[in-house]
Amino acid sequence: RPLHAYNKLRVEFMREYLIQDNDGVVTPDFFNNLKALDVGSGGGILSESLGRLGCQTLGIDPTPMSIKVAKEHLCNDLELVEKVKYKQTTIEELVEDEEHQNKYDFAASMEVIEHVNNQAEFVKNIAKAVKPNGLIFLSTLAKTTESWLLSIKLAEDLLGFVPRGTHNWDKYVNPEVLHEMVENAGFRVLKTQGAMYEPITN
């Protein structure tokens, strides 16, 4: 439930920003002409949403079970099958193939970087996959006391929403650190937006 609530928020944010980046012009086939890359696609929640927007979407994830679940769920919607594809791989492996370099109009990676060891290199590899003047959307958990309490003590230890050990607070990334990674990858930070899940109202 929290994932779906966040996903709705993210997709709307991305949709609005993609339109804004196109000077506010939306032709009937605007989204159909966009190539999207979902890095760390998991079960495909975001990939399917981008496909419903019309984007030609590739979701990548290194976990075989995640790709299996995503593909099985995708089969329930025949219209999306032509829009969304999945590949079991990492971003590092993907951009070794020249076919995937400078290919995508935008890339998204949601709550993935806090599980990555070499975070700066991870961002650089995402940047390699995106076209010049393309967009990258990144979402992560800020390294704050609140995030530790909510994502580890509450979500893992008390409520069991996710298995214990899923998150490592030492890998959480504050906005200014993420900004530096993005800039070192050759991109500019255009906007930063915070969000917090409210379980009572959601």
Describe the overall structure.
There is one protein chain. Strand 1, helix 2 and strand 2 form a beta-alpha-beta unit. The chain has a single domain, classed as Vaccinia Virus protein VP39 (Rossmann fold, 3-Layer(aba) Sandwich), CATH 3.40.50.150. Helix 1 runs parallel beside helix 2 (45-53) and helix 6 packs across helix 8. The longest helix has 20 residues, at 2-21. It is an alpha/beta fold. It has helices at 2-21, 45-53, 64-74, 78-81, 91-94, 119-129, 145-158, 175-184; strands spanning 35-39, 56-61, 84-88, 104-110, 130-139. The termini are close together.
> How many strands?
5
**Highest CATH level, the class:** Alpha Beta
Taken together, the total number of domains comes to 1
Name the strands of the widest sheet in spatial order: 3-2-1-4-5
Largest sheet: 5 strands, parallel
Low-confidence stretches: none
Note the beta-strand portion: 15-25%
GO molecular function: 3-demethylubiquinol 3-O-methyltransferase activity; polyprenyldihydroxybenzoate methyltransferase activity
Keywords: Methyltransferase, S-adenosyl-L-methionine, Transferase, Ubiquinone biosynthesis
Protein name: Hexaprenyldihydroxybenzoate methyltransferase
GO cellular component, one term: mitochondrion
